[in-house]
Amino acid sequence: MSGDNVNMYGGSGNTGIQNNHFTPSAEAVPPELREAVRELLRLVGELRGQLPPASVRVLDDNLPALTGQGVPPQAPEERHRALLAVAGIAATVSTVGEPVVEAVRKVLGLLGAV
Questions:
Q1: What is the residue-level pLDDT of the chain in tens, covering all 114 positions?
Q2: Within 13 Å of residue 72, how many CA atoms lie on the same side as its CB?
Q3: For an engineered disulfide with 51, which of 3, 21, 55, 101 has Cβ 3.0 to 4.6 Å away?
């Protein structure tokens, strides 16, 4: 179940709702996941120079979701979509992109998505 769940017990003139959101801090991210993402970003950086401009734009569009630096912070589904997009681009350049595909698989595994 997702979305707001509001219960009101008695009173009158009740208005407004308070939403409390939790964004995990960098310390809450396991070190092996942080390292795997760092390695993925390094490999993506190396791959960028071997891609056509349209593919580079797609990579750049997905980087905020990979790093968790998006505003607002990215949902797990968005991060998963971004990882698959990066893997798809890397797969189009055959053996040159294979290290990126493997790095994406590792991150997905650490996230429990595979």
A1: 455 666 656 666 666 555 555 455 545 778 999 999 999 999 999 999 999 999 999 999 998 888 876 666 668 889 999 999 999 999 999 899 999 999 999 999 998 876
A2: 6
A3: 55
